[in-house]
Design brief:
267 residues; single chain
């Protein structure tokens, strides 16, 4: 997820003892181990952002043409904005699923002599060799699709709602909204994204860090949800949310600010 890309602190918290454990590891000088796998999402983040916004605007134009054909105002309704964002998320999941799977495997593998993967490409090869590309590399894709659809539906909807509300409230044009407000609205959208989709992300991380064959703990997405609730209760679906929300606001703010100001410059 670009503005929503999971990072090491989140995965560690979801698979260990929560946010306090993450902070202890960081301050104890475990940064070298914690940083494993960060290169993979960094490489794919540009592609993900392009897919997210490209797909959203493709869906937006589709709904605009449908509205005009039905002799309605071209502007999208809030439900159409959500569906456009959800479409962007589903499209993005095609590459975000395997990218995040590889990242999680690299981050959670043993250190030293017990290391399982020498790097991202070796990880892709070995994951695909286990049960094929779909069941190996794309493990957890079903819950990834659900997470991405919900996350980006809410992400784009929240941002557009705040921007439209500002236009109406202050009686200004969209392009006249100051950049600091654009960033603030983008940051709030990032918070809404994670709050609305975090339980899906927890289950995804558990499935993508699970073993293979006899070492597999979760038979399916539904089984993972059931086991998590049975062992950890409702709070188990929110483990690691603190660091995630702290990171989400500046990342999402920067993403929307750059995109919005770039579109204004190109207009």
């Amino acid at each position: 997820m670009a503005a929503a890309e999971g990072q090491t602190d989140k995965v560690t918290a979801q698979s260990t003892g929560g946010s306090s454990r993450v902070l202890k590891d960081l301050f104890a000088g475990a940064a070298g181990g914690v940083a494993q796998g960060t290169l993979t999402p960094l490489i794919g983040i540009g592609a993900c952002v392009s897919i997210q916004f490209g797909s959203f605007h493709y869906a937006r134009r589709f709904f605009e043409s449908q509205n005009l054909a039905s002799r309605r105002p071209a502007a999208l309704s809030y439900s159409q904005l959500y569906l456009s964002g959800a479409f962007a998320g589903v499209t993005n999941s095609v590459i975000s699923g395997p990218i995040e799977h590889v990242r999680i495997r690299l981050q959670t593998q043993p250190h030293g002599a017990g290391r399982l993967y020498s790097g991202p490409l070796d990880c892709v090869r070995k994951l695909s060799a286990h049960e094929g590309v779909l069941r190996g590399l794309y493990r957890g894709e079903a819950v990834t699709i659900l997470r991405e659809a919900q996350a980006y539906g809410v992400w784009f909807l929240t941002f557009e709602y705040l921007m439209r509300n500002d236009v109406v409230r202050n009686k200004v044009k969209r392009e006249d909204i100051p950049s600091w407000k654009v960033a603030a609205y983008g940051g709030l959208a990032g918070e809404a994204l994670w709050i609305s989709s975090y339980p899906f992300d927890v289950v995804k991380s558990k499935m993508q860090s699970d073993g293979f064959g006899p070492d597999m703990r979760y038979k399916s997405m539904r089984d993972c949800f059931a086991q998590t609730f049975k062992k950890e209760g409702v709070l188990g679906f929110w483990k690691g949310i603190g660091p995630t929300l702290l990171r989400a606001m500046p990342v999402s703010a920067g993403t929307f600010a750059v995109v919005e100001l770039t579109m204004r410059a190109l207009a």
